[in-house]
Amino acid sequence: MAKGSEVFFPFKDNYFPLYLAPMARFTDFGFRALCKEQGADILITEFVMADAIIHGNETAWSRFEFDQKQRPIGVQIFGSSPDLMGEAAAIIEDRIQPDFIDINFGCPADKVTCKDAGSSLLRNLKKLGAVAAAVVKAVPNTAVTAKIRIGWDAQSIIASEAGKILQDVGIRCLTIHGRTKDQGYSGSADWSIISAVHDQLEIPVVGNGDIQTAEDVIRIQSQGHCDGVMIGRAALGYPWLFKEIRHYLNTKEVLEAPKLSERWRVILNYCRESFPSGVKEEQRQCIRGYRPKIASLTKEMIGCKRLRPEIMKLNFFGELIELADIHLAKHEQELEEVCQ
Q: Are residues 29 and 272 in contact, defined by beta-carbon separation less than 8 angstroms?
C-alpha cells in the first residue's frame, strides 16, 4: 500500500506500478516505447553523468529523448558532487520537464564507482545524503527519486540507514535492488531486506531483482514486500511480461503468450521507433547497432538458437523483414499443429 501524507503520483489510489528499469545501452527511445505498449507503467531513461549535462553533451541529451506517449517518465543521473548534481538537475527540469528525476546510487560498474558515483556512495552515506539533498533543493517543482542497492558487500548492508537518510532529505520514492555492489548481477536478490526497509519508511519502496515471471510479481505483491516493482533484464528478452503481469493483477487470469506473428510485429515496430530522424534514409535503415537488442527479443522464440546467428549478420531493416517472413513461414504452421 502506498504510504506517506503526500503520495508519489504512481502510487495514488493504492495502484501497484510496474517500472521498466533503466539499463545502459538498452532502454533507448524505441525500447521504452515498446515496453510502454506492452504495459509498463513508469519508464526511466538510461543514466547520464551530471557533468555531461552541464557541458551540453548532445549525445548525452539524446538518451533523455521521449515523447508525450512515454509519460510518466523519469530521467536518471549520477555523479558524486552535490553542486554539480543539483546544477544538472535544474538544467534538466528547465529543458525537458520530466515527471521526475531519479538519482542512481546503485550502479555497480567499475567505470562508475571509480568516479565515486553510483553504488560507491553506499560507503559514504553522509555524501549520499548531501547529493540527494542538493538535487531535491535544485528542482522544487519536480519529484526526485533514488535507486540503491542493499549495500556495498555482505558486511555492509546499509539499505535501511540509506533509506531513512534519503527520505529525510526529500526523496519521494526509493527503489532497492536486492543485491550488493559486490554481487553485481550474480547470486540472488534478498527480498527480505527490501521488505524490511519498506516497512520502516513512509515513502513508497519499489523492489528490483530476480523478477522473471508474472508469478514472481504476484507473490511479491501478495506478501506486501513493496509498493511496486522494477523489471530489468527479464524485459530485454520478453517485454510482453508487463502485459501478462498487469492482466493477472487485474483479472487473476493467466494471459495467453503472444503468437509468433505478434512477437515479430513488436520487434519490427521496435526498429521503426528506434531509427533516428534527420539522417539519410540509408542510415535510418541500418540496423547493425540494433542486432544485439533484436536478438535478445527472440528469447525462447521457436528456433531462436538458429535465428540469432542470422540476426547478427544483418545490416539493413529490409533484410530483417525478409528473415521474419522466412521464420514465420517455417514455424507458424508447426505451432498451430502443436496447439491443436
A: no
Q: Contact 117/78 with Cβ under 8 angstroms? A: yes
Q: Is the dihedral of CA 172, 176, 182, 185 positive or negative?
A: negative
Nearest CA to 203 among 169, 249, 232, 237?
A: 169
Sequence-distant (≥ 6) Cβ neighbours of residue 143 within 8 angstroms: 8, 9, 99, 100, 101, 172, 173
User: Which of 193, 226, 251 is at the close of a domain?
Assistant: 251
Q: For residues 244 and 305, is the Cβ–Cβ distance under 8 A?
A: no
Quick check: is 107 catalytic?
yes
Please tell me which residue in 107, 173, 226, 271 is annotated as part of the active site: 107
- Which of 232, 251, 270 delimits the end of a domain? 251
Cell numbers representing residue 335 in the block? 505451432
Distance CA 31, CA 40 (A): 11
Q: Kindly provide the residue ranges of all beta strands, DSSP E only, lying in the chain, ordered along the sequence.
A: 18-20, 43-44, 48-49, 73-78, 100-105, 143-151, 174-180, 205-208, 228-231
**Taking the model in full, what pTM does it have?**
0.92
Question: Residue 306 has what pLDDT?
Answer: 92
- Contact indicator for 270, 30 with CB cutoff of 8 Å: yes
pLDDT score for 93:
97
Round to whole Å and give the CA distance between 54 and 56. Answer: 5
Average pLDDT over all residues of the chain: 92
Which domain does 287 fall in, by range?
A: 260-339
